[in-house]
Specification:
The protein has about 325 residues and is α+β, with helices and mostly antiparallel strands. It folds into 3 domains: about 100 residues, Uridine Diphospho-n-acetylenolpyruvylglucosamine Reductase, domain 2 (2-Layer Sandwich); about 120 residues, Uridine Diphospho-n-acetylenolpyruvylglucosamine Reductase, domain 3; about 80 residues, Uridine Diphospho-n-acetylenolpyruvylglucosamine Reductase, domain 1. About 30% of the residues lie in helices and about 25% in strands. The chain is built from 8 helices and 18 strands. A 5-stranded antiparallel beta sheet has the order 6-7-13-11-12. A 4-stranded mixed beta sheet has the order 1-2-5-3. The protein has a 3-stranded antiparallel beta sheet with strand order 15-16-17.
Length: about 325
C-alpha cells in the first residue's frame, strides 16, 4: 500500500480490517491521522490531577483506528491503557510506560431509536443525563453529576442515590480479545456492586444501549437539581479526587467507619481525608500518588484495628 494516500489507506483498513505493519506508533498515528502526544502529563487526564508522564498518549478518531492502535501494541508487546475521563484512577508519580489511549469526543455520539438511547463510551454521564432529560426520559437522574464517561460507568456499574447502571442498561457493544466488535446483554455482564464482567475480561466497551421510561421533563429536571445539590453539599467537589475512595462495606458505610476512627481531615503531604465527607480522599494541592496511597493505607489499617472491617479501595491504581 505504499503507493496510495493516507486517507485511502484509512478507508481500506476500516472497511476490510486490513492489518498494516507499522514500524512505530508514531508512524501508525501519522498514517492514520491519529492525534499523538509524546511525554503527556497524565495529571491533566485524571480527575485526581495526579500522575507522571506516559511515553505516548493517543486519541483515536474511529473504532477502526482504536483497533489499529491496540493491535499495534499487542503485536509489539507494548503495554497500553484505556482511559475515558480518568475519574476513578490514581496514576503513578513515575508515569506509565507504553501507550495511553484516551476515548474522547469522537466516541461520544448519542442517538435515540425505538430501542432506547444508544450512547458511545466516550460521552460524559452528565451529557447523557441531559440528553435523556431533553427527550423527557426518566431513569438516569441518579447518574447526573457522577464524573466520568458512560464506558467507565458501565465498567464499574456506577451508582448513587439508590440507582445503578444495571437498572437501565439493555446491552453494549465492545471489542473482545480478538478485537472483534460484539454485543453483550445486561444479564451477561455480571453487574453487581461496583463490578462487571469488564473488570475481569480484556474487553473494551464501545457503546451502551439504555432503556428509559417516559417522564415529565419538569420533574426530571427537579430531581436532577435535587441530587446535584446533595452532591455539592455533602461531597468535596471543590477539590480534585477520584470520587468515593472506598467501597461500601456490607451493612455499613466507609465514611462512617473512617470518621469514627478519628481520621476525618487526616493527611499525608497534599492528600487528605476530606473534612466534608470522610469517604473521599482529596488532593488539597500538590498531592502525589504516594501521598494518596499513604493515606489509603493508614485509613485501612486504623479502621481495621478499630472495627475489624477491612476497607476495599474503589480507585484503580495504575503503576
Amino acid at each position: 500500500m505504499e503507493n496510495i494516500d493516507a486517507e485511502t489507506e484509512k478507508k481500506l483498513c476500516e472497511k476490510y480490517c486490513i492489518n498494516i505493519k507499522y514500524n512505530s506508533i508514531e508512524e501508525l498515528c501519522e498514517k492514520r491521522n491519529i492525534e499523538l502526544i509524546k511525554d503527556a502529563a497524565l495529571s491533566e487526564y485524571t480527575t485526581f490531577a495526579i500522575g507522571g508522564k506516559c511515553d505516548f498518549l493517543v486519541k483515536p478518531d474511529s473504532f477502526g483506528s482504536l483497533r489499529d492502535v491496540i493491535l499495534y501494541c499487542r503485536e509489539n508487546d507494548v503495554k497500553y491503557y484505556v482511559l475515558g475521563k480518568g475519574s476513578n484512577v490514581l496514576v503513578s508519580d513515575n508515569g506509565l510506560k507504553g501507550v495511553v489511549i484516551v476515548l474522547s469526543s469522537p466516541f461520544s455520539k448519542i442517538t435515540e431509536s425505538e430501542d432506547g438511547i444508544y450512547c458511545e463510551a466516550g460521552a460524559s454521564l452528565t451529557r447523557l443525563c441531559t440528553y435523556a432529560k431533553d427527550k423527557e426520559l426518566t431513569g438516569l437522574e441518579f447518574a447526573y453529576g457522577i464524573p466520568g464517561t458512560v464506558g467507565g460507568a458501565l465498567y464499574m456499574n456506577a451508582g448513587a442515590y439508590g440507582g445503578e447502571m444495571k437498572d437501565v442498561v439493555v446491552s453494549c457493544d465492545y471489542l473482545d480479545e480478538n478485537l472483534e466488535i460484539k454485543t453483550m446483554y445486561a444479564e451477561e455482564m455480571k453487574l453487581s456492586y461496583r463490578h462487571s464482567i469488564f473488570c475481569e475480561k480484556n474487553y473494551i466497551i464501545l457503546g451502551v444501549l439504555f432503556r428509559l421510561e417516559k417522564g415529565d421533563k419538569a420533574e426530571i429536571t427537579a430531581k436532577m437539581s435535587e441530587l446535584m445539590d446533595k452532591r455539592r453539599s455533602k461531597q468535596p467537589l471543590e477539590y480534585p479526587s477520584a470520587g468515593s475512595t472506598f467501597k461500601r462495606p456490607e451493612g455499613d458505610f466507609a465514611g462512617r467507619l473512617i470518621e469514627v476512627s478519628g481520621l476525618k481531615g487526616f493527611s499525608c503531604g497534599g492528600a487528605q481525608v476530606s473534612e466534608k465527607h470522610s469517604g473521599f480522599v482529596v488532593n488539597k494541592g500538590g498531592a502525589t500518588c504516594e501521598d494518596v496511597k499513604n493515606v489509603i493505607s493508614a485509613v485501612k489499617e486504623k479502621v481495621y484495628k478499630d472495627s475489624g472491617v477491612m476497607l476495599e479501595c474503589e480507585v484503580l491504581i495504575l503503576e
